[in-house]
């Protein structure tokens, strides 16, 4: 499963917790649509790479594992 959906109406979103959803990856295009994302928690998923996350300039808290 991947996280890939329309977030055009959520560009003001600052906190996102998507724990325990069996996610395999985070779609770079999805992250690009969240320019104000400050907090991201992806714990208890099977994500093998966070490539593209370095482009998130406002992200200050990241939780995974």
Order of the strands making up the biggest sheet = 2-4-5
SS summary, helix count = 1
Averaged pLDDT, please? 84
Number of E-state strands: 5
What percent strand?
Answer: 15-25%
Order of helices and strands: EEEHEE
Q: Cα distance, first to last residue?
A: 17 Å
- Overall structural class, as computed from helix and strand content, comes to mainly beta
Uncertain segments are none
Q: What is the global morphology?
A: globular
Radius of gyration: 11 Å
Q: Could you give a short account of the major beta sheet?
A: 3 strands, parallel
Estimated helix fraction: under 10%
Give me the oligomer status: single chain
Structural features, described:
The protein has 65 residues and is mostly beta strands. The chain is built from one helix and five strands. It has one helix at residues 28-32, and strands spanning 2-3, 15-17, 25-26, 39-41, 61-63.
Q: How would you concisely characterize the structure shown here?
A:
The protein has 65 residues and is mostly beta strands.
Q: Which tags fit this structure?
A:
65 residues; mainly beta; 3-stranded parallel beta sheet; two-stranded parallel sheet; 8% helix
Give the helices and strands, then pairings.
Blueprint: E1 2-3, E2 15-17, E3 25-26, H1 28-32, E4 39-41, E5 61-63
Parallel strand pairs: 1-3, 2-4, 4-5
